[in-house]
What we know:
- It is globular, with a radius of gyration of 15 Å.
- The chain has helices spanning 12-20, 29-42, 101-113; strands at 7-11, 47-53, 59-69, 91-97, 122-127, 129-142, 145-157.
- By secondary structure, it is of the alpha+beta class.
- Strand 6 and strand 7 form a beta hairpin.
Amino acid sequence: MRYFANGMDIGFGAHGARNVTRVPRFLTGFGAYLGALVLTMVKYPLLRVRIRLDDAPAFELTTAMTAVMNGTTFGGSFRVCPEARPDDGLLDLLLVQAVGRLEILQLVPKILRGTHAGDPRLRLVRAKRVRIESDEPLLAEADGEIAFEHVRHVQIDVLPGALSVFS
């Protein structure tokens, strides 16, 4: 069992999180993320997954990345789910269809600005509970850290009020 406050993902983002540790040490902050993006572009998986949202029937998807968010942003710059609210009791998901390298490069600026809603290659959805299953092993990242390697399913549940936040 793992907990996250902001977000988790499988696919491109998880491999990017792993690659942040592989970029030269002189690259920091946004430069490190760009370096990881380049490394991830060389090889990233297209995953065939089954996703179940709440009690709805599961659906299959070949995805370059699936992110499950409580917050809006990954890495301080990537506005993955710009409408997410950490206090609404819902998880926001970004489902990215299987896309090639050129399409990834087209999507990155949109995701940085948070202007990707409506792009036909993406879906933004909400749920209280998410289950992701795959016949192939998955790499899962949560809040910037590799949470699981070689898992075949993850279940994410909202824990309303579990974290007190002071402003």
